[in-house]
Design brief:
- By secondary structure, the protein is an alpha+beta fold.
- Helix content is about 15%, strand content about 25%.
- The chain contains 1 helix and 11 strands; from the N terminus they run αβββββββββββ.
- A 4-stranded antiparallel β-sheet has the order 2-3-4-9, with no helix packed on it. Strands 5-6-7-8 form a 4-stranded antiparallel β-sheet, with no helix packed on it.
- It is globular.
- The structure holds FE2/S2 (inorganic) cluster.
- FE2/S2 (inorganic) cluster (FES) binds next to loops.
């Protein structure tokens, strides 16, 4: 190996060492990785006024609204549930199906019951659930 070959190969090796960490890092967690997706609510909780137009869907059984990362569903005349809207598979936003009484993820078909438990994968972890308190026309989610 002459001097020119040596420097040529050393330069190529150095390039591989320089590029390798960036390539390897791309295989790590991303912002859509379920472990790094935040599905929670702020420490002050969420307050919803049922008399406002934006929350009108909650005046009907089967209706639902989103607030931040939370989906709030009216499941009966007297009952509401609040769950993380962030699918635990890869972070898509779940929706509620009144006809099947399930939360469904449009991305890969995961399904959850209204308690947040997984009914069908590929998600393997439950949706976080929150406490809903009703006081007149005000819902407080904490
Ligand atoms: Fe919901 Fe894949 S992100 S099933």
């Amino acid at each position: 190996m002459d001097r020119k070959d040596f420097f040529s190969k050393a330069l190529l090796g150095g390039s591989v060492l320089f590029i390798a960490p960036a390539v390897l890092n791309s295989c790590g967690k991303t912002s859509s990785d379920p472990a790094s997706v935040s599905g929670g609510i702020t420490s002050g909780g969420i307050t919803l006024d049922l008399t406002t137009t934006g929350n009108a869907a909650l005046n009907t059984v089967g209706g639902f609204v989103y607030s931040g990362n939370v989906i709030i569903i009216r499941t009966s005349d007297t009952n509401y549930v609040a769950l993380s809207k962030v699918c635990t598979h890869q972070g898509c936003t779940v929706s509620y199906s009144k006809s099947s009484n399930k939360l469904v993820c449009p991305c890969h078909g995961a399904q959850f019951n209204t308690g947040g438990s997984v009914l069908q994968g590929p998600a393997s972890r439950s949706l976080s659930s929150y406490t809903v308190t009703v006081n007149g026309n005000t819902l407080t989610i904490s």
